[in-house]
Amino acid sequence: MKKLEHIGIAVKNLDESNALFAKILGKPHYKVEEVESEGVRTSFFEVGGIKIELLEATRADSPIAKFIEKRGEGIHHLAFDADPVEDEMKSLSDLGFALLSDNPKSGADNKEIVFLHPKTTNGVLIELCQEKKK
Ligand code: ZN
User: Fold this and answer.
1) d(CA 35, CA 53)
2) Hey, how many other C-beta atoms are within 10 angstroms of the C-beta on 22?
3) CA of 86: how far to CAs of 20, 98, 112, 124, 128, in Å?
4) Stretches in the chain below the pLDDT threshold 70
5) Is the pTM of this model over 0.90?
6) Distance 37 CA to ligand 1 centre (A)
7) Which residues surround ligand 1, an ion (CB under 5 A)?
8) Distance of CA 59 from the midpoint of ligand 1 (Å)
9) Number of CB atoms found within 10 A of residue 14's CB
10) Predicted local confidence at residue 55, as pLDDT
């Protein structure tokens, strides 16, 4: 892993949380992006080279809706820059970690992403991401 790329936070209302985090961080979010396939609307803040990704569910069967139902709002995942992501997937899978998908998926912020199953990572949902190459 190269570095912590961002921290994902599940929120109920993106607009309210954008205002809240702007107060905390002293600067506004720099983009809002919907990821249709994942059923989420996201926004991004940047602090000292690390991003904060706020995630709001856009439908009831979104993973974010399910997360909030079970655990409430809060930290959802840690995302690490892993380039090339396929190499990192292979070495972690060889070490016995379960991946949530066999191939990287298209995520927000121009990234290819894949998650490690939290049951193999002390309950922490870990995302591996790399910048899309095309
Ligand atoms: Zn993320």
Assistant:
1) 13
2) 14
3) 36, 14, 10, 21, 10
4) 134
5) yes
6) 14
7) 8, 53, 79, 127
8) 18
9) 20
10) 98
